[in-house]
Write a structure and sequence with these properties.
Oligomer: single chain
Number of helices: 9
Structural class: alpha+beta
Radius of gyration: 27 Å
Number of strands: 9
Order of helices and strands: HHEEHHHEHEEEEHEEHH
Strand content: 15-25%
């Protein structure tokens, strides 16, 4: 949530910079800065823009920002790597063309998170089992959320999407699940009596049917109940 807040501030400021830059162009003669105050304002805007670019590029997650019509205005380097799209190719395109997400199991297209944020004005999280289809057709499991970018009047100017590659985490979770399932199968199907207890008070944490029968109990649940603290 902190990362989303930080990214929102940075992206919103970049949007503000673009608006401010446009105002300078329309309020004064082109390429002419008439006073020190105006020059200082332009320098401050430029300095802020550079700091914000550095901030967004240093974030470890992918960041995509869109305008109020859902067209991409910014990608950081992580987002370029994850999507397979460069900023030069992606800017101006609808999000769906660059950020194509499907359900990992049903293979159906997921709802467009930017469209949902623009419609509801709320921060939303991507659904579980969301897969990003990269430009070259390869897939990665992703997670995180999208949030509205608002101006000083609370009008939505665009959306910022922050996401990360969850592929390695998902693989580790699956390996852990398989390992735990293998352990359970071996434990409960063993031909010898097995139980696992807590050293502190001797409470039986787990037992198989064989150990229960060895001690004359009809079930492992009955056996374990005898050792509850």
């Amino acid at each position: 949530m902190f990362l989303i807040a930080l990214t929102l501030v940075a992206v919103a400021a970049l949007v503000g910079y673009a608006v401010g830059k446009q105002r300078i162009k329309t309020s004064y003669e082109p390429r002419i800065i008439r006073s020190y105050g105006e020059r200082g304002y332009a320098q401050d805007l430029h300095r802020s823009k550079e700091w914000l670019k550095i901030t967004l590029q240093s974030i470890g997650d992918g960041v995509i920002a869109t305008d109020a019509q859902g067209h991409i205005v910014f990608l950081n380097e992580v987002a370029e790597t994850l999507t397979g799209w460069t900023q030069a190719d992606a800017v101006g395109r609808p999000l769906r063309q660059v950020f194509r997400i499907i359900n990992e199991y049903t293979r159906k297209l997921c709802a467009d998170p930017v469209a949902e944020v623009l419609e509801t004005g709320r921060v939303i999280g991507l659904a579980n089992h969301t897969v990003l289809v990269r430009r070259d057709g390869t897939e990665i499991v992703i997670a995180d959320s999208a949030a509205p970018i608002r101006d000083d009047q609370s009008n939505i100017e665009g959306v910022v999407l922050v996401f990360r590659d969850e592929t390695d985490k998902r693989q580790m979770q699956e390996q852990l699940r398989i390992s735990e399932q293998t352990y359970r199968n071996l434990f409960h199907n063993a031909q010898v009596g097995l139980f696992r207890s807590r050293l502190l008070d001797g409470v039986i944490l787990e037992a198989n049917h064989q150990i229960a029968h060895m001690f004359g109990y009809s079930s492992r649940e009955e056996f374990m109940a005898e050792f509850v603290a």
